[in-house]
Each structure stands twice: as C-alpha cells, then as structure tokens.
Specification:
Elements: H1 9-31, E1 55-56, H2 57-73, H3 78-94, E2 105-106, E3 112-114, H4 119-136, H5 139-157, E4 175-176, H6 177-193, H7 197-214, E5 225-226, E6 240-241, H8 243-260, H9 263-280, E7 292-293, E8 307-308, H10 309-325, H11 329-345, E9 357-358, H12 378-390, H13 398-406, H14 410-414
Antiparallel strand pairs: 1-2, 2-3, 4-5, 6-7, 8-9
Helix pairs in contact: 1-12, 2-3, 2-4, 2-12, 3-4, 4-5, 4-6, 5-6, 6-7, 6-8, 8-9, 8-10, 10-11, 10-12
Length: 415
C-alpha cells in the first residue's frame, strides 16, 4: 500500500481505483448476481461461496446504491446499471409489507421470511433508489424512495419505536445513535436530488440528535445509547462506544457541514473523529476495536475486541475528507496508519474482496457478527467517494469549506 504521507494523490487514486474496478466489483460480478430472480446474493463467505440464498433487504438496498454509484460516479457501465435496476425491481416487487415498510428478509424467490423489523432496511432501500434515480431519471424510483424514507423518518422520531433489527434496545436505553446517523446520510442525499422541506427538516433533526445529544458539549464521547430524557446512563450499555459508527456518522456530519458551509460544525466533527481514533485504536496489535467503554471498563458491545473491515474503510474515507478540509498533520498520520494496517490484514488476494472479520491480533475468523452477510457496500462506497474526492469531482463544495477552515491561526492548525 503506498504511503499516505509520501504518495502524491494520483498514486493513492490509482490504488483505490484498481482495488475497486479490478478486485471488488469483479468479485461481486462473479459471485453475487442472481441472474434468475434478480437481486444480489450477500450471504457469502469471503471466498464467494454461499452460506444461504436468503436475501436481507438492507443488503439489497446497499447493493442498488453501489452498482448505481459506480456507474454514476466512476465509469458508466450498462451491466452495472442493469444489475442495480433488477435489484430495485426485486425489492419493489417482493420487499415490502401491506403498509409499505421494508421487510427484513425474504427467500431467493422473494417469499417473506422476516417482517419489517428494521428501519435500517427502509433507509438503505431509499438510499439505493435515490442513487439509481440519479442514473435513470425515472420518476417512479424517486417517488418510491421518498415514500419509504418518509415512513422510516416518521417512526424514527418516535422515542418509543423499536425497529432496530438486527440490534435490540438495551435495558434502560431510550435513544440509539444508529437511526439518526443513517437517517442523516439518506436525508441529505435525497435533499440534494429534491430539496423538499420535510426531507431537509429531518436532516436537521438527525444532525441535532447526533451533535447535541449523542455528542454533547463538554463530553468528547459520541454515545451509542442514551437513557430517558437523553441522559447519559452510567451502565455498560450506556457507556458503549462503537468507534466505526462514530467515524462513519461524523463524515456524514462533515458532508452536512460542506452543504451548510459551517466551519464550526466541521471543526467539532473533525475533533471528534480525531478523539475516537485515538480511543478506538488497539495499542498492542493495531487496528480499530469494534467497541470500547467510555470509562475504560469491559466493553458491553458484543465482539468488541474484534477487528472488522467496515470501521477501517469508513476511517479511510473520513480521514481523506478531513485532510482535504484541513492541513492538520494528524489527518495524514492517521490515514497512513490505518491504510497500512488495513491493506496488510484485510485483502483476500486470492478472491479479490476484503476479509470481513479478524480476531484482535489480525487473523481471519469466521465468527458471526450481527448478520451472516457480506455486502457490496462499505468498501466500494469508500473507494467511490475517495476516488471522487481525489479527482476533485465530489458534488460537495469541499474546497470552499476548506478555504474557510484555513483562515485560522498557525497554532490552531498545528493541533
């Protein structure tokens, strides 16, 4: 892996592009496409063999986003677009209940197996349909995306809602970070397509939840769980921190800061990314822990000591974006550290994609974490966004916000 500290942007860009187009996407074209029924196989082992032919709808929505985004943002490809369209058709035919909520899991053919137990599935489907609409301009896709999004947004605002699968609300917890985190990203992407007031309002609501409740003034931690009245709960569940979620959530916030041209919001997000990288890094074996306890105790989060691929991919994009926004030295130092570790440990050079799960010391494991799925999502999304950023083709006004952030004292820049 080229050094992020020493390599010019074109070298990094070609590394990312080669990984995406010569390894990741070919893996999915070989192993993931259901040519008979539509949709994508995602219950896969790292070698591409199938664990199951069942289809989780959040994985199907993610796949629509990825195939459409590579077509839209990297290289137009009719085959990728057709896969995205067939997967969207599968979702819209088989993936909803009578009330329009997205089911959690169906058979290969589309027979329901698990009901609508996850707002995450709704959000990912809306996310994918929105990206596919960018490619096709088909109004039906935008209408469906907005309908699914609005239903999820409505239930997410309710503090009593409990559609968190594959997670569950822990005892004593009222609010969870995940719905607001994902809600922000989906809302701001849809608002770019169609800036309707309710979509923008929900984006603002999610941003407030993340930055003024889960991350609050005087507390450096972005808490995964909050108790009644948005209070901190000094319990194992209340002290739970998921560094990968935090970093992913905060690059969503940085995107919002670019849209708003808000340097104060950007600085808060940048400081929190830096803090959680320091807190989440394993000083003995390297890599980012899946979970930590904000008071230094035994983490409540299951499999906390394991090293998963997705926190590292989210950190790579977050740090590349942070470096574009500020010349603070920590951004490149951390980017180099994480890329070196991740590119050494995760690539499966025989099969083309990245391994999903490692033990604490960095050896591959098959232990199930959350769902038995391998999605075409976190790694290819990072690569798509990173390539666009390095090509200066990001749709966001990153350079304008960077110029505002640059108007600081030399002492502040060095921090």
């Amino acid at each position: 892996m080229p050094s992020a500290l020493l390599s010019p942007p074109p070298v990094l860009r070609e590394t990312y592009h080669g990984l995406l187009m010569e390894n990741v996407m070919p893996f999915w074209l070989r192993h993931g496409i259901d040519e008979i029924h539509g949709g994508v196989f995602t219950c896969l082992r790292d070698d591409g063999s199938r664990i199951s032919e069942d289809k989780y709808l959040w994985s199907q929505g993610r796949a629509v986003w990825t195939f459409a985004a590579v077509h839209n943002r990297i290289a137009p490809d009719d085959r990728l677009l057709a896969i995205a369209q067939r997967t969207a058709d599968f979702i819209l035919r088989h993936g909803r209940d009578e009330e329009g909520a997205v089911l959690f899991r169906v058979t290969r053919e589309g027979t329901p197996l698990e009901p609508a137990t996850s707002a995450y599935a709704d959000y990912f489907v809306a996310y994918g349909l929105g990206e596919l609409y960018r490619a096709t301009g088909e109004e039906r896709l935008l209408e469906e995306a907005l309908a699914i999004f609005r239903r999820a947004a409505r239930v997410t605002r309710d503090p009593e809602f409990d559609r968190f699968a594959p997670y569950a609300r822990p005892p004593g917890i009222r609010r969870m970070h995940g719905p607001a985190m994902l809600g922000l990203e989906v809302a701001q992407e849809l608002a770019d397509i169609t800036p309707e007031p309710d979509v923008q309002d929900f984006s603002a609501w999610c941003l407030n939840r993340i930055m003024n409740h889960h991350l609050s003034a005087g507390n450096p931690w972005l808490l995964e769980h909050l108790g009644p009245d948005d209070r901190f709960c000094d319990t194992p569940e209340g002290r739970a921190i998921v560094p990968g979620h935090v970093i992913e959530s905060l690059w969503f916030v940085l995107h919002q800061a670019c849209r708003r041209q808000d340097p104060f919001l950007a600085r808060r997000a940048l400081d929190a990314i830096h803090f959680h990288l320091e807190a989440g890094w394993d000083p003995e074996f390297g890599g980012i822990f899946l979970g930590v306890d904000c008071h230094g105790g035994t983490p409540w989060w299951p499999n906390a000591e394991k090293k998963l691929w997705w926190p590292h991919t989210e950190a790579i994009y977050a740090l590349l974006l942070a470096h574009k926004l500020t010349d603070a030295s920590w951004t490149l130092e951390w980017l180099d550290r994480i890329q070196r570790w991740a590119f050494e440990k995760f690539p499966d050079r025989e099969h083309g994609e990245w391994r999903q799960r490692l033990d604490r010391s960095g050896w591959p494991i098959s232990t199930l974490v959350a769902l038995p799925v391998k999605d075409p999502f976190h790694l290819p999304r990072t690569l798509v966004l990173a390539i666009n950023l390095l090509d200066e083709k990001s749709p966001l006004p990153v350079a304008q916000l960077a110029a505002t952030l640059a108007a600081r004292s030399p002492l502040e820049k060095a921090q």
